[in-house]
Design a protein that fits this description.
By secondary structure, this protein is mainly β. The chain has a single domain, classed as Jelly Rolls (Sandwich), CATH 2.60.120.10. The chain is built from no helices and 23 strands. The protein has a 7-stranded antiparallel β-sheet with strand order 1-20-17-22-14-13-12, with no helix packed on it. The protein is globular, with a radius of gyration of 17 Å.
C-alpha cells in the first residue's frame, strides 16, 4: 500500500453499502470513501457515529429525508451529513452514490447542494487552469462551508485534456482520493502518481468506479481523446485547523 502502484481501488457495483477506502485497507490515515448502490424502489438509512459524510449522486435520483425535511437530489447533487445524524435515502430507480468521510470534530451541519456550474459563487464554482488543462470545479463541501476535516468537490476537464496541472501536492496538510465516474469502459483516463519532483512513478488507467488514493505527492490526470477526466475528489485534513484549499504546492519543475 505504500507504493503508488498499489493506490488504485475498484469499487463494487453490487447492491448495498461498500467501504472502498479507509485506514484499515489503505495508506490513508484520515480519509474514508464509500459507495452506496440502491436498487429500484428501495431505501437505505445512512448514519455514522464518528464520521462526517459528503455524498454525491453519481447515477439516478434520490429523495433524502433529514428530520421533517425532504429533498430531491439528482445526478451530481450532494449532501453533507454530520456524525451521529441519520439520513433516509429512497429511490424509485437504480442509484449510485459516492460518499467521502473523515473524523467529525463537532463542526458541520446538514445541508444539500444542487449541482449548477452557472451560479455566481466563487466559493462553490471555479474554473482552474487554461487549455490544455482547463477544468470546471464544483465544491460539494467548500473551504467556507461548515465542516470538520472534509473539503470535497467534482472536477471535469475538457475532452482529451489534462486536469490537476501543473502537478501539485499537499502532503503535509491533506490526504485525497479521486473517485472516477462518467468514463464507461473501455474508455479511460490516466491518473499519474509521483512523490518525486519532475518524475512519474506510476500511471493508473482509470474508468468509472475506479478510486485512486493520494496520500502524498503529485497527481495530475489526462483523458483519452473524446473523454473528459471526471471525478469526485475527497480531501481530508490531517489537522482540522489546516482545513484549507489553498495549501497545495506546485511541482517546481513544471510550474
Amino acid at each position: 500500500m505504500k507504493e503508488p502502484k498499489d493506490w488504485k481501488y475498484k469499487s463494487l457495483n453490487t447492491n448495498g453499502f461498500h467501504t472502498v477506502i479507509g485506514p484499515e485497507n489503505s495508506i490513508c490515515k484520515q480519509t474514508y470513501v464509500f459507495r452506496l448502490n440502491i436498487d429500484n424502489n428501495q431505501s437505505y438509512v445512512l448514519d455514522n457515529p464518528s464520521l462526517e459524510l459528503n455524498g454525491v449522486v453519481i447515477e439516478g435520483e434520490i429523495e433524502v429525508n433529514s428530520g421533517n425535511e425532504k429533498y430531491i437530489l439528482k445526478k451530481r447533487d450532494s449532501f453533507y451529513l454530520p456524525a451521529g445524524e441519520k439520513l433516509l435515502i429512497s429511490t424509485k430507480s437504480k442509484v449510485v452514490v459516492f460518499i467521502g468521510g473523515a473524523k467529525y470534530e463537532g463542526n458541520g451541519d446538514f445541508f444539500t447542494r444542487k449541482f449548477d456550474l452557472n451560479i455566481s459563487d466563487i466559493n462553490t464554482v471555479q474554473i482552474h487552469g487554461e487549455k490544455p488543462y482547463r477544468r470546471d470545479v464544483f465544491m460539494t463541501v467548500g473551504q467556507y462551508d461548515k465542516a470538520s476535516r472534509l473539503i470535497c468537490g467534482i472536477t471535469s476537464g475538457d475532452e482529451g485534456m489534462w486536469t490537476s496541472w501543473p502537478p501539485h501536492q499537499h502532503t503535509k496538510d491533506m490526504e485525497e482520493v479521486y473517485c472516477y465516474f462518467d468514463i464507461p469502459e473501455p474508455k479511460f483516463a490516466l491518473h499519474l502518481s509521483s512523490r518525486i519532483n519532475g518524475k512519474v512513478e506510476f500511471v493508473h488507467p482509470v474508468s468509472s468506479g475506479d478510486f485512486v488514493v493520494v496520500p502524498e505527492g503529485y497527481h495530475p490526470t489526462v483523458a483519452m481523446p473524446g473523454v473528459k477526466s471526471c471525478y469526485f475528489w475527497v480531501m481530508a485534513a490531517h489537522n482540522c485547523q489546516n482545513r484549507r484549499y489553498d495549501l497545495s504546492i506546485n511541482d517546481p519543475i513544471f510550474d
